[in-house]
Design goal:
By secondary structure, the protein is of the alpha/beta class. The chain contains 26 helices and 30 strands. The structure holds alpha-methylisocitric acid and iron/sulfur cluster (SF4).
Amino acid sequence: MTVAAATPIELVQGVYATLDEHLGIGRRRLGRPLTLAEKILINHLDDPETAGMERGVSYVDLRPDRVALQDATAQMAWLQFMTAGLDEVMVPTTTHCDHLIQARDDGRTDLLTAIDGNREVYDFLASVCARYGAGFWKPGSGIIHQVVLEQYAFPGGMMIGTDSHTPNAGGLAMVAIGVGGADAVDVMTGFPWNVRWPKLIGIHLTGELSGWAAPKDIILKVADILTVSGGTGAIVEYFGPGARSLSATGKGTICNMGAEIGATTSLFAYDDAIARYLKATGREALADAAGAVAHHLRADDEVEADPDAFFDQVIELDLSTLSPHINGPHTPDLSRPVADLGAEAEREGWPMTVSAGLIGSCTNSSYEDITRAASIARDALAKGLTAKAPLLITPGSEQVRATIERDGLLADFEALGAKVLANACGPCIGQWDRQDMEDGVPNSIVTSYNRNFPKRNDGYATTHAFVTSPETVMALTIAGRLDFDPANDTLTNDAGEEVRLTVGPGEELPADGFDPGEETFLAPPADGSGVEVTVSPTSDRLQLLTPFPAWDGEDITDLAVLVKAQGKCTTDHISMAGPWLRYRGHLENISGNVYMGAVNAFNGEVGTGLDVTDGETRAYPEIARRYHEAGIGWVAIGDENMGEGSSREHAAMEPRFRGARAVMARSFARIHETNLKKQGVLPLTFANSDDYDLIGPEDRISVVGLADLAPDTQVEVVITSPDGATTSIAMDHTYSADQIEWFKAGSALNLIRQRI
Ligand code: MIC
Ligand code: SF4
């Protein structure tokens, strides 16, 4: 397997070669025209003739074209892959070093500090890639999704990535799906990838954006309409004249943040804007190949003419009337027009002063984004304004950084006092060693990122994070206040005059082409069998994995309730990022954070609960460790959309490692539910949502009749209260017949090992 710094044209041609035949099969079997998402899925089915295609019901086997891993999730993925005993990856795979770089001083200094501090992990990832034939993108190369967009994504392709924002590549008409590491290992070891045939949401875009409105505002508005769980189990397909008016990178922004509505992925059709982007990023041959099959890379004409006949839900958005939006704090779907934020902040008591503005992340760091934001910086300076709050810029990739430096755009930001950070996730994932603010001080920040859960950026629960477009971040940072509406309000400049900020149209692509910047890719050797991969037994950052035990065939009885979480319990609550990213390759050490952020439903406290062995109150990770050592099995109880957010399988592996047998919730986010299944923990949902209320802190839980576990059946759960009274409730599950084998084997990986 040769893995280069680009998708080989032969791979793309291979995918296009089957389109006629496979789509013919799909149209015949479904008896109707097809949407774009259906076309790409059908073309990647392991067997298009027999696969079930009942939306939200059938499970199907798919054959993705590529796999992408980022350093914080790649470690666990590779540690799992290594136990499979293969000599090389079976599908082109790349690893991207982006999450482990902490933002503090400036790009260069921070990068060198990270290379030094993470040497062991980077060496492991570089060697494991070389050993097994994968491409390695060094620290400094950029954020996985930006690099994938620039180098690997292609119209009509399908990829999976161990990061929830993998759908970013939907901007180039690709079906790109975020998964846990165990899913990636399925594909890397040559097995198909199993997923439920998705529902389809169509978003019909008409009109055209103008003024301060940006592509980001489309997804901020969609998040408002669909909420953080409205896309669960669905692919979101954007179409209509408004879709064709957006740049490829603008489309990417929208698809990227589709993760925040729980969508399986989002995508746009291939069009001229995508062709322009492919050409500008050196992929003329690919643009030509896509152009030749363009009719297959968009929905059939009937779909746009009568969308209700094809989608489970259709949303209409007129871009001409869409105003700039801003979402937050603490959840990405709390949305309103920028113009209304001031009044709401006043009412809610959110700090009105902006304490920092942050531009970049995988969501918003394209050339177009930067040119628009830089135009505001230039305008402000020319009008005698300065930024009232610190401004931090994280370029999405080395290519974007080198290009915006060459074109004088970084200088525009720096003239306004901005700090340019490394090409990495940085403050987007809690890797922000924030010097100018202390924990406990309520403050507001504005970012062009996608997530804003508490503690997400600087680790402080008292920071209120609002997500918005780069343009609005600039305006609010210059104004220094949340109650500033750039379209209507004025600011007082250093001469005492009232001035109005303006935003330029931006440039879709650099007129002088992209500057690739420093070489940051390492291709694997032709034969990696001699490469040694070492994991020190004394390392505190990497630990080889021991397989989880297989199911013993018995019912699971007498489980303690480790945690009953109330309200939001995202993967950040279950396995915090920031400082804990350090232990992403060491299962035992990272288990020191398990459920640390969960709100205890019995008393509202964060991160602590009752240890039933002695009645003491302790931190959840501590109780989990004690139960583990005492051999006590346990359950975790969750509310709605349990495990929302990240793809990190640590949120499933840590509970599994510490003895969780089941996680019972009102509902689950897709990736977390799958991760639990893959690692051998039963995800069960309350058939009657109010049954959540029945569970008390000292109850014992039994899951009975497991020998009869079968698709489309319920599971009986018996709750025994301390006085011995028992209540029996029904719970639902989403296991397919194949997935039940994962449970029986103890994990999906155990099954792969048996099959190889
Ligand atoms: C995120 O944005 O939450 C992350 C950090 O990129 C995660 C992946 C991780 O936890 O490593 C994601 O989105 O999947
Ligand atoms: Fe990185 Fe943030 Fe994007 Fe996640 S959302 S990949 S942390 S930049």
